[in-house]
């Protein structure tokens, strides 16, 4: 992460109000710098990738991440209304890189949800390649490099809207990490 | 010429910031990520509302007080997350918040900052 660094995230959880307030201000500055960065690359992005970048995914609970060949499929339940099911299908150019300890142990959630991300346009020869780093609430940071991402929005029938499937044991997440 | 020392003037203490208030909250549907402020409630009602999976928001001009009270409300439900800071993925008008470490019950305790405020529920 270039903007929302681990050090910054760590300071947001400080017990010292002055440290937290300074970190909040830094975070807002990072938000502004990241917005400027996205505006710089936006003219080079196809409309569907711009729409992908506009999805409000914060706090969306991840119900599945799966692979099929060069495709990575992520299924999320949006938290921000309308609470659609979001299916992201990435066309990968390399295996995802997963760091299971991106968040301090004491800051991790018992559930895998989408916290924040950074998106970038990376040139590889004449082809456009996209890079995305995503930090999840369970402490994972997943880095993806891909040539395309497709978004499907659907209305959930099950789990019923407003409910959530919560793991019964935290060790399940720990083992998968 | 007087040899008396110059009188020391002390600045008056700044007036205390008003105490934060707690309100029912809802999130606006759409791309803004805005938090809509409803009727004012007390601490006990806020915890009850959070236990029911609904949102609440702490409003006021004292960021430290807002954050501490929001954390206290969320901790009244169960173990609270670290502060969740606004990000593009939460919408341009989003507010920082706490939620449950388990994400159950659903919902959030939002709090206002210097630059991020609620919208009044129509």
Question: Can you characterise this structure?
Answer:
The complex is a heterodimer of chains A (177) and B (122). By secondary structure, chain A is an alpha+beta fold. Chain A has a domain of 115 residues. In chain A, 27% of the residues lie in helices and 34% in strands. Chain A is built from 4 helices and 7 strands, in the order αααβββββββα. In chain A, strands 1, 2, 3, 4, 5, 6 and 7 form a 7-stranded antiparallel beta sheet that branches. The longest helix of chain A has 25 residues. The radius of gyration of chain A is 17 Å and the shape is globular. Chain B is of the alpha/beta class. Chain B has one domain. Chain B contains 2 helices and 6 strands; from the N terminus they run E-E-H-E-H-E-E-E. A 6-stranded mixed beta sheet of chain B has the order 4-5-3-1-2-6. Chain B is elongated and about 70 Å long. Chain B starts with 20 loop residues before the first strand and ends with a strand. The relative contact order of chain B is 0.24.
Percentage of helical residues of chain A?
25-40%
The secondary structure category of chain A is alpha+beta
End-to-end span of chain B in angstroms?
Answer: 68 Å
- The domain tally of chain B reads 1
- Name the average pLDDT of chain A: 90
Oligomeric status: heterodimer
Kindly report how far apart the N and C termini of chain A lie.
Answer: 19 Å
In what range is the share of β-strand residues of chain B? 15-25%
Helix content range of chain B:
10-25%
Backbone CA Rg of chain B: 19 Å
What Rg of chain A is obtained from the alpha carbons, in whole angstroms?
Answer: 17 Å
Order of helices and strands of chain B: EEHEHEEE
Shape designation of chain B: elongated
């Amino acid at each position: 992460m270039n903007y929302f660094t681990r050090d910054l995230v760590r300071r947001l959880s400080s017990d010292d109000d002055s440290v937290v307030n300074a970190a909040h201000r830094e975070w807002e500055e990072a938000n502004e710098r990241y917005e400027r960065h996205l505006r710089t690359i936006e003219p080079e992005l196809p409309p569907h990738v711009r729409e992908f970048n506009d999805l409000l995914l914060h706090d969306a609970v991840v119900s599945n991440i799966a692979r099929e060949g060069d495709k990575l499929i992520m299924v999320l339940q949006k938290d921000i209304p309308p609470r659609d099911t979001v299916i992201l299908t990435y066309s990968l150019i390399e295996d995802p890189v997963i760091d299971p300890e991106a968040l301090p142990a004491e800051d991790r959630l018992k559930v895998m949800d989408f916290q924040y991300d950074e998106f970038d346009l990376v040139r590889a020869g004449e082809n456009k390649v996209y890079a995305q780093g995503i930090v999840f609430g369970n402490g994972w940071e997943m880095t993806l490099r891909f040539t395309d991402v497709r978004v499907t929005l659907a209305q959930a029938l099950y789990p019923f809207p407003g409910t959530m499937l919560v793991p019964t044991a935290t060790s399940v997440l720990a083992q998968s990490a | 010429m007087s040899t008396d020392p110059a009188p020391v003037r002390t600045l008056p203490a700044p007036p205390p910031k008003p105490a934060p208030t707690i309100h029912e909250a809802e999130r606006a549907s759409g791309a803004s990520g805005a938090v809509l402020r409803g009727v004012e409630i007390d601490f006990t009602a806020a915890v009850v509302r959070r236990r029911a999976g609904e949102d609440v928001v702490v409003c006021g001009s004292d960021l430290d007080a807002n954050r501490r009270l929001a954390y206290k409300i969320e901790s009244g439900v169960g173990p609270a997350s670290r502060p969740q800071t606004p990000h593009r993925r939460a919408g341009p008008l989003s507010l920082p918040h706490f939620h449950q470490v388990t994400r159950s019950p659903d919902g959030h305790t939002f709090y206002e900052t210097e630059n991020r405020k609620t919208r009044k529920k129509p």
